[in-house]
Design goal:
Layout: E1 4-8, E2 11-18, E3 24-28, H1 30-35, H2 53-61, H3 67-76, H4 84-91, E4 99-103, E5 115-117, H5 119-131, H6 138-141, E6 156-161, E7 164-168, E8 177-180, H7 189-202, E9 210-215, E10 218-224, E11 228-230, E12 236-238, E13 241-243, H8 244-248, H9 264-274, H10 281-296, E14 307-309, E15 315-316, E16 334-339, E17 342-344, H11 350-359, H12 364-393, H13 397-419
Antiparallel strand pairs: 1-2, 1-4, 2-3, 5-7, 6-7, 6-8, 8-10, 9-10, 11-12, 13-14, 14-15, 16-17
Helix pairs in contact: 7-12, 10-12, 12-13
Protein backbone atom coordinates (compact mmCIF):
# COMPACT_ATOMS: atom_id res chain seq x y z
CA UNK A 1 0.00 0.00 0.00
CA UNK A 2 1.43 3.35 -1.04
CA UNK A 3 -1.44 5.48 0.22
CA UNK A 4 -4.84 5.24 1.87
CA UNK A 5 -7.96 7.16 0.93
CA UNK A 6 -10.12 8.64 3.69
CA UNK A 7 -13.85 8.48 2.92
CA UNK A 8 -16.62 10.44 4.63
CA UNK A 9 -20.20 9.93 3.45
CA UNK A 10 -18.98 8.21 0.24
CA UNK A 11 -16.71 11.15 -0.62
CA UNK A 12 -12.93 11.20 -0.52
CA UNK A 13 -11.85 13.59 2.23
CA UNK A 14 -8.15 13.19 1.68
CA UNK A 15 -5.16 10.91 1.47
CA UNK A 16 -3.01 9.27 4.11
CA UNK A 17 0.65 8.70 3.27
CA UNK A 18 3.14 6.50 5.14
CA UNK A 19 5.97 8.28 6.90
CA UNK A 20 9.03 7.22 8.85
CA UNK A 21 8.82 4.82 11.82
CA UNK A 22 5.20 3.84 11.19
CA UNK A 23 3.84 7.37 11.29
CA UNK A 24 1.46 8.89 8.76
CA UNK A 25 0.89 12.18 6.98
CA UNK A 26 -2.57 13.44 6.00
CA UNK A 27 -3.56 15.75 3.17
CA UNK A 28 -7.05 16.99 2.30
CA UNK A 29 -8.42 16.43 -1.21
CA UNK A 30 -8.67 19.67 -3.18
CA UNK A 31 -12.16 18.67 -4.29
CA UNK A 32 -13.21 18.18 -0.67
CA UNK A 33 -11.83 21.58 0.26
CA UNK A 34 -13.75 23.21 -2.59
CA UNK A 35 -17.07 21.40 -2.16
CA UNK A 36 -17.32 20.51 1.56
CA UNK A 37 -14.66 22.35 3.51
CA UNK A 38 -15.25 20.36 6.72
CA UNK A 39 -12.30 19.35 8.90
CA UNK A 40 -12.07 15.76 10.14
CA UNK A 41 -10.58 17.08 13.37
CA UNK A 42 -10.13 20.33 15.24
CA UNK A 43 -6.42 19.46 15.20
CA UNK A 44 -6.45 19.04 11.39
CA UNK A 45 -7.94 22.25 9.98
CA UNK A 46 -8.72 22.43 6.27
CA UNK A 47 -5.64 23.36 4.21
CA UNK A 48 -4.12 22.41 0.88
CA UNK A 49 -0.72 21.51 2.32
CA UNK A 50 0.02 18.20 3.99
CA UNK A 51 -0.34 18.18 7.74
CA UNK A 52 2.76 17.31 9.72
CA UNK A 53 3.44 13.65 10.59
CA UNK A 54 3.17 14.35 14.32
CA UNK A 55 -0.31 15.86 14.27
CA UNK A 56 -1.53 13.47 11.55
CA UNK A 57 -0.36 10.39 13.45
CA UNK A 58 -1.83 11.64 16.72
CA UNK A 59 -5.31 11.81 15.21
CA UNK A 60 -5.27 8.54 13.29
CA UNK A 61 -3.55 6.34 15.87
CA UNK A 62 -6.28 7.37 18.32
CA UNK A 63 -8.65 5.33 16.13
CA UNK A 64 -6.76 2.14 16.95
CA UNK A 65 -7.06 -0.41 19.76
CA UNK A 66 -4.38 -0.38 22.42
CA UNK A 67 -2.29 -2.87 24.40
CA UNK A 68 -2.68 -6.61 23.74
CA UNK A 69 -5.34 -6.39 21.03
CA UNK A 70 -3.14 -4.16 18.90
CA UNK A 71 -0.10 -6.39 19.43
CA UNK A 72 -1.99 -9.59 18.56
CA UNK A 73 -3.64 -8.10 15.46
CA UNK A 74 -0.32 -6.76 14.19
CA UNK A 75 1.39 -10.13 14.79
CA UNK A 76 -1.39 -12.05 13.04
CA UNK A 77 -1.20 -9.80 9.98
CA UNK A 78 2.61 -9.55 9.97
CA UNK A 79 3.25 -5.87 10.47
CA UNK A 80 4.83 -3.83 13.25
CA UNK A 81 2.36 -2.90 16.00
CA UNK A 82 3.69 0.68 15.86
CA UNK A 83 2.89 0.94 12.13
CA UNK A 84 -0.22 3.14 12.16
CA UNK A 85 -0.39 3.18 8.36
CA UNK A 86 -0.38 -0.62 8.05
CA UNK A 87 -2.95 -1.00 10.82
CA UNK A 88 -5.38 1.41 9.17
CA UNK A 89 -4.84 -0.28 5.83
CA UNK A 90 -6.00 -3.58 7.35
CA UNK A 91 -8.65 -2.40 9.82
CA UNK A 92 -9.79 1.07 8.78
CA UNK A 93 -12.94 0.19 6.89
CA UNK A 94 -15.21 1.01 9.85
CA UNK A 95 -13.74 3.42 12.43
CA UNK A 96 -15.10 5.60 15.19
CA UNK A 97 -16.92 8.55 13.67
CA UNK A 98 -17.77 8.87 9.99
CA UNK A 99 -14.48 7.86 8.43
CA UNK A 100 -13.87 4.77 6.32
CA UNK A 101 -10.22 4.20 5.39
CA UNK A 102 -9.28 2.06 2.38
CA UNK A 103 -6.21 1.41 0.20
CA UNK A 104 -6.28 3.52 -2.95
CA UNK A 105 -6.12 0.28 -4.97
CA UNK A 106 -9.40 -0.98 -3.46
CA UNK A 107 -12.69 0.12 -5.01
CA UNK A 108 -15.08 1.05 -2.20
CA UNK A 109 -18.42 -0.75 -2.04
CA UNK A 110 -20.93 1.56 -0.39
CA UNK A 111 -23.93 -0.72 -0.86
CA UNK A 112 -25.80 -0.56 2.48
CA UNK A 113 -27.03 -3.51 4.51
CA UNK A 114 -24.28 -5.99 3.63
CA UNK A 115 -23.46 -8.03 6.72
CA UNK A 116 -22.19 -11.46 7.73
CA UNK A 117 -23.95 -13.29 10.56
CA UNK A 118 -21.29 -14.21 13.15
CA UNK A 119 -23.60 -15.35 15.97
CA UNK A 120 -22.41 -18.99 16.03
CA UNK A 121 -18.78 -17.93 15.60
CA UNK A 122 -19.18 -15.41 18.42
CA UNK A 123 -20.35 -18.18 20.77
CA UNK A 124 -17.38 -20.34 19.76
CA UNK A 125 -14.96 -17.48 20.41
CA UNK A 126 -16.54 -16.70 23.79
CA UNK A 127 -16.19 -20.39 24.65
CA UNK A 128 -12.48 -20.24 23.78
CA UNK A 129 -12.01 -17.09 25.84
CA UNK A 130 -13.72 -18.66 28.84
CA UNK A 131 -11.59 -21.81 28.55
CA UNK A 132 -8.29 -19.93 28.16
CA UNK A 133 -8.67 -16.17 28.70
CA UNK A 134 -4.92 -15.56 28.67
CA UNK A 135 -4.62 -16.97 25.16
CA UNK A 136 -7.73 -15.60 23.43
CA UNK A 137 -9.27 -12.16 22.96
CA UNK A 138 -12.54 -11.26 21.29
CA UNK A 139 -11.43 -8.75 18.64
CA UNK A 140 -8.32 -10.64 17.41
CA UNK A 141 -10.28 -13.90 17.18
CA UNK A 142 -12.62 -12.36 14.59
CA UNK A 143 -10.41 -12.93 11.56
CA UNK A 144 -12.74 -11.19 9.07
CA UNK A 145 -13.20 -8.01 11.09
CA UNK A 146 -12.08 -5.09 8.90
CA UNK A 147 -12.77 -2.46 11.50
CA UNK A 148 -11.08 -0.58 14.28
CA UNK A 149 -12.17 0.53 17.72
CA UNK A 150 -10.07 2.56 20.15
CA UNK A 151 -9.37 1.73 23.76
CA UNK A 152 -7.52 -0.67 26.04
CA UNK A 153 -10.43 -3.02 26.89
CA UNK A 154 -11.15 -6.06 24.75
CA UNK A 155 -14.24 -5.17 22.71
CA UNK A 156 -15.86 -5.79 19.36
CA UNK A 157 -18.02 -3.47 17.21
CA UNK A 158 -20.99 -5.38 15.77
CA UNK A 159 -24.43 -4.88 14.33
CA UNK A 160 -27.17 -6.39 16.51
CA UNK A 161 -30.54 -7.24 15.00
CA UNK A 162 -33.16 -9.53 16.58
CA UNK A 163 -30.63 -11.16 18.93
CA UNK A 164 -28.26 -11.94 16.05
CA UNK A 165 -24.78 -10.50 15.68
CA UNK A 166 -23.23 -9.28 12.44
CA UNK A 167 -19.98 -7.88 11.03
CA UNK A 168 -19.96 -5.49 8.06
CA UNK A 169 -19.15 -7.12 4.72
CA UNK A 170 -18.26 -3.89 2.90
CA UNK A 171 -17.53 -0.18 3.35
CA UNK A 172 -21.16 0.86 3.09
CA UNK A 173 -22.23 -1.14 6.14
CA UNK A 174 -21.40 0.05 9.63
CA UNK A 175 -21.66 -1.43 13.12
CA UNK A 176 -24.31 -0.28 15.59
CA UNK A 177 -23.14 -1.60 18.98
CA UNK A 178 -19.99 -2.38 20.92
CA UNK A 179 -19.84 -5.54 23.02
CA UNK A 180 -17.35 -6.24 25.81
CA UNK A 181 -16.85 -9.73 27.28
CA UNK A 182 -16.08 -10.69 30.85
CA UNK A 183 -12.47 -10.23 31.96
CA UNK A 184 -10.06 -12.63 33.61
CA UNK A 185 -8.32 -9.79 35.42
CA UNK A 186 -11.28 -7.67 36.58
CA UNK A 187 -14.08 -9.87 37.96
CA UNK A 188 -17.56 -9.06 36.65
CA UNK A 189 -16.39 -5.87 34.97
CA UNK A 190 -19.35 -6.23 32.60
CA UNK A 191 -21.78 -6.03 35.56
CA UNK A 192 -19.76 -3.14 36.99
CA UNK A 193 -20.06 -1.08 33.79
CA UNK A 194 -23.72 -1.92 33.21
CA UNK A 195 -24.58 -0.75 36.72
CA UNK A 196 -22.48 2.44 36.60
CA UNK A 197 -23.85 3.44 33.20
CA UNK A 198 -27.44 3.05 34.40
CA UNK A 199 -26.64 4.90 37.63
CA UNK A 200 -25.19 7.73 35.54
CA UNK A 201 -28.44 7.91 33.57
CA UNK A 202 -30.43 8.18 36.81
CA UNK A 203 -28.03 10.91 37.96
CA UNK A 204 -28.92 13.01 34.92
CA UNK A 205 -25.78 12.31 32.88
CA UNK A 206 -26.18 11.79 29.14
CA UNK A 207 -25.08 8.24 28.26
CA UNK A 208 -25.86 5.86 25.37
CA UNK A 209 -28.30 3.00 25.89
CA UNK A 210 -26.55 -0.06 27.30
CA UNK A 211 -27.38 -3.42 28.83
CA UNK A 212 -26.05 -6.86 29.71
CA UNK A 213 -26.70 -9.57 27.14
CA UNK A 214 -26.59 -13.33 27.60
CA UNK A 215 -25.10 -15.01 24.54
CA UNK A 216 -25.54 -18.75 24.99
CA UNK A 217 -24.42 -18.60 28.62
CA UNK A 218 -21.86 -15.82 28.16
CA UNK A 219 -22.63 -12.46 29.73
CA UNK A 220 -21.38 -9.44 27.76
CA UNK A 221 -21.84 -5.71 28.14
CA UNK A 222 -23.48 -4.10 25.12
CA UNK A 223 -23.68 -0.38 24.34
CA UNK A 224 -25.31 1.41 21.43
CA UNK A 225 -22.98 3.52 19.32
CA UNK A 226 -23.92 7.18 19.54
CA UNK A 227 -21.95 7.79 16.31
CA UNK A 228 -24.37 5.62 14.34
CA UNK A 229 -28.03 6.10 13.33
CA UNK A 230 -30.04 3.09 12.16
CA UNK A 231 -32.45 3.55 9.28
CA UNK A 232 -34.73 1.15 7.43
CA UNK A 233 -33.50 -1.79 5.31
CA UNK A 234 -30.21 -2.16 7.14
CA UNK A 235 -28.98 1.36 6.42
CA UNK A 236 -26.67 2.67 9.14
CA UNK A 237 -25.58 6.32 8.99
CA UNK A 238 -22.14 7.20 10.34
CA UNK A 239 -21.94 10.35 12.48
CA UNK A 240 -18.56 12.00 12.72
CA UNK A 241 -16.98 12.43 16.13
CA UNK A 242 -13.58 12.70 17.74
CA UNK A 243 -12.32 12.35 21.27
CA UNK A 244 -10.60 15.17 23.14
CA UNK A 245 -7.12 13.72 22.55
CA UNK A 246 -7.74 13.75 18.81
CA UNK A 247 -9.15 17.28 18.97
CA UNK A 248 -6.08 18.47 20.87
CA UNK A 249 -3.58 16.57 18.74
CA UNK A 250 -2.41 14.36 21.62
CA UNK A 251 -1.22 10.77 20.87
CA UNK A 252 -3.00 7.87 22.55
CA UNK A 253 0.09 6.92 24.56
CA UNK A 254 -0.11 10.32 26.28
CA UNK A 255 -3.81 10.21 27.15
CA UNK A 256 -3.10 10.45 30.89
CA UNK A 257 -2.42 13.93 32.27
CA UNK A 258 0.75 12.84 34.09
CA UNK A 259 2.12 11.64 30.73
CA UNK A 260 1.35 14.90 28.94
CA UNK A 261 -2.33 14.35 28.23
CA UNK A 262 -5.11 16.86 28.81
CA UNK A 263 -6.27 17.96 32.23
CA UNK A 264 -9.55 19.60 33.14
CA UNK A 265 -8.32 23.07 32.23
CA UNK A 266 -7.61 21.97 28.63
CA UNK A 267 -10.94 20.13 28.47
CA UNK A 268 -12.80 23.19 29.71
CA UNK A 269 -10.98 25.44 27.26
CA UNK A 270 -11.88 23.08 24.43
CA UNK A 271 -15.57 23.11 25.31
CA UNK A 272 -15.60 26.87 25.82
CA UNK A 273 -14.02 27.49 22.43
CA UNK A 274 -15.83 24.98 20.22
CA UNK A 275 -19.08 24.14 22.05
CA UNK A 276 -20.00 27.68 23.08
CA UNK A 277 -23.32 27.60 21.18
CA UNK A 278 -24.58 25.36 23.99
CA UNK A 279 -23.64 28.00 26.53
CA UNK A 280 -22.18 26.73 29.80
CA UNK A 281 -23.91 23.34 29.61
CA UNK A 282 -20.92 21.34 28.21
CA UNK A 283 -18.77 22.72 31.03
CA UNK A 284 -21.47 21.86 33.60
CA UNK A 285 -21.67 18.34 32.19
CA UNK A 286 -17.91 17.88 32.54
CA UNK A 287 -18.22 18.91 36.19
CA UNK A 288 -21.18 16.59 36.80
CA UNK A 289 -19.46 13.58 35.28
CA UNK A 290 -16.31 14.33 37.29
CA UNK A 291 -18.31 14.36 40.52
CA UNK A 292 -20.04 11.16 39.44
CA UNK A 293 -16.69 9.50 38.66
CA UNK A 294 -15.46 10.52 42.12
CA UNK A 295 -18.50 8.88 43.73
CA UNK A 296 -18.26 5.58 41.83
CA UNK A 297 -14.45 5.56 42.00
CA UNK A 298 -13.72 5.75 38.27
CA UNK A 299 -10.05 6.70 38.14
CA UNK A 300 -9.57 6.00 34.43
CA UNK A 301 -11.53 8.92 32.93
CA UNK A 302 -8.92 10.41 30.59
CA UNK A 303 -9.05 12.61 27.50
CA UNK A 304 -10.20 9.77 25.25
CA UNK A 305 -13.34 9.32 27.35
CA UNK A 306 -14.74 12.70 26.30
CA UNK A 307 -15.79 13.35 22.72
CA UNK A 308 -17.22 15.94 20.36
CA UNK A 309 -19.84 15.16 17.72
CA UNK A 310 -19.30 17.04 14.48
CA UNK A 311 -22.35 18.37 12.64
CA UNK A 312 -23.97 21.63 11.70
CA UNK A 313 -23.07 22.63 15.25
CA UNK A 314 -20.54 20.78 17.38
CA UNK A 315 -21.97 19.21 20.51
CA UNK A 316 -20.65 17.19 23.43
CA UNK A 317 -21.06 13.46 22.91
CA UNK A 318 -22.76 11.26 25.53
CA UNK A 319 -20.39 9.94 28.19
CA UNK A 320 -19.11 6.38 28.07
CA UNK A 321 -16.69 3.96 29.79
CA UNK A 322 -18.18 4.80 33.18
CA UNK A 323 -17.28 2.08 35.67
CA UNK A 324 -15.65 1.78 39.07
CA UNK A 325 -11.95 1.01 38.92
CA UNK A 326 -11.66 1.56 42.66
CA UNK A 327 -13.33 -1.77 43.43
CA UNK A 328 -10.29 -3.59 41.98
CA UNK A 329 -7.53 -3.42 44.65
CA UNK A 330 -4.67 -3.93 42.19
CA UNK A 331 -5.41 -0.74 40.26
CA UNK A 332 -3.82 2.58 41.12
CA UNK A 333 -5.83 4.88 43.40
CA UNK A 334 -5.13 7.92 41.20
CA UNK A 335 -7.34 9.79 38.78
CA UNK A 336 -6.31 10.11 35.13
CA UNK A 337 -6.82 13.87 35.45
CA UNK A 338 -6.08 15.77 38.62
CA UNK A 339 -8.85 17.42 40.61
CA UNK A 340 -7.32 20.76 41.49
CA UNK A 341 -3.71 19.66 41.55
CA UNK A 342 -4.34 16.33 43.25
CA UNK A 343 -4.47 12.89 41.58
CA UNK A 344 -4.81 10.62 44.64
CA UNK A 345 -8.45 9.91 45.48
CA UNK A 346 -7.80 9.74 49.22
CA UNK A 347 -6.05 13.15 49.22
CA UNK A 348 -8.70 15.14 47.37
CA UNK A 349 -10.33 17.47 49.86
CA UNK A 350 -11.90 20.91 50.07
CA UNK A 351 -8.86 22.78 48.72
CA UNK A 352 -8.55 20.49 45.68
CA UNK A 353 -12.21 20.89 44.80
CA UNK A 354 -12.03 24.68 45.23
CA UNK A 355 -9.12 24.73 42.79
CA UNK A 356 -11.06 22.46 40.45
CA UNK A 357 -14.07 24.81 40.55
CA UNK A 358 -11.74 27.68 39.67
CA UNK A 359 -10.21 25.67 36.80
CA UNK A 360 -13.73 25.11 35.48
CA UNK A 361 -14.62 28.83 35.85
CA UNK A 362 -17.42 28.12 38.30
CA UNK A 363 -18.24 30.05 41.46
CA UNK A 364 -17.85 28.04 44.69
CA UNK A 365 -21.56 28.40 45.58
CA UNK A 366 -22.70 27.06 42.20
CA UNK A 367 -20.16 24.26 42.40
CA UNK A 368 -21.38 23.36 45.88
CA UNK A 369 -24.95 23.17 44.56
CA UNK A 370 -23.88 20.79 41.76
CA UNK A 371 -22.00 18.70 44.30
CA UNK A 372 -25.00 18.55 46.62
CA UNK A 373 -27.33 17.49 43.79
CA UNK A 374 -24.99 14.70 42.68
CA UNK A 375 -24.50 13.44 46.25
CA UNK A 376 -28.23 13.38 46.91
CA UNK A 377 -29.09 11.66 43.64
CA UNK A 378 -26.45 8.93 43.90
CA UNK A 379 -27.27 8.41 47.59
CA UNK A 380 -30.94 7.84 46.77
CA UNK A 381 -30.45 5.74 43.64
CA UNK A 382 -27.47 3.45 44.04
CA UNK A 383 -28.80 0.89 46.55
CA UNK A 384 -32.20 0.32 44.84
CA UNK A 385 -30.40 0.02 41.50
CA UNK A 386 -27.89 -2.47 42.91
CA UNK A 387 -30.80 -4.60 44.15
CA UNK A 388 -32.49 -4.38 40.76
CA UNK A 389 -29.34 -5.48 38.94
CA UNK A 390 -28.76 -8.34 41.35
CA UNK A 391 -32.31 -9.59 40.81
CA UNK A 392 -32.04 -9.19 37.04
CA UNK A 393 -28.50 -10.47 36.40
CA UNK A 394 -27.78 -12.69 39.40
CA UNK A 395 -25.78 -12.39 42.60
CA UNK A 396 -22.21 -11.18 42.41
CA UNK A 397 -19.57 -9.95 44.82
CA UNK A 398 -19.09 -6.90 42.61
CA UNK A 399 -22.41 -5.46 43.81
CA UNK A 400 -21.30 -5.56 47.45
CA UNK A 401 -17.96 -4.00 46.51
CA UNK A 402 -19.72 -1.22 44.60
CA UNK A 403 -22.07 -0.57 47.51
CA UNK A 404 -19.22 -0.30 50.03
CA UNK A 405 -17.08 1.93 47.83
CA UNK A 406 -19.87 4.30 46.76
CA UNK A 407 -20.98 4.77 50.39
CA UNK A 408 -17.41 5.65 51.40
CA UNK A 409 -17.10 8.14 48.56
CA UNK A 410 -20.46 9.72 49.36
CA UNK A 411 -19.30 10.26 52.92
CA UNK A 412 -15.99 11.80 51.77
CA UNK A 413 -17.62 14.13 49.25
CA UNK A 414 -20.30 15.13 51.78
CA UNK A 415 -17.56 16.32 54.12
CA UNK A 416 -16.08 18.41 51.31
CA UNK A 417 -19.49 19.88 50.52
CA UNK A 418 -20.10 20.78 54.16
CA UNK A 419 -16.71 22.52 54.34
CA UNK A 420 -17.29 24.65 51.22
Amino acid sequence: MEKLLIHWDKKVVGTLFPHKRGRVQFQYSQKWLETQGLPISLSLPCQSEKHTPGISTAFFENLLPENNARSILAFNHRFDKKDTFAFLGHFGEDCAGALSILPDTQSPDFTPGQYEDITELLVEVLDRIKADPEKHQLFPEMKKARLSIAGAQDKLPVRIDKNRFYLPANSGSATTHIIKPASLYYPDIQKNEAFCMELALQAGIAVPCSQLLNIDGHEVFSIERYDRIQREKGLVIRIHQEDFCQALGIPANRKYQEKGGPGFIQCRQLTDEYLSLQGAEPRMNLIRVTLFNYLIGNHDAHGKNFSIIHGKDMIMAPFYDLLSTQVYPGLENKFAMSIGKTFRHDRIGERAFRLFAGDMKLRPRKFSDLMDTMIQTVSQCHEPLLSTHEEKYGASGIYQSLSVQIKKNIELLSRVRDAM
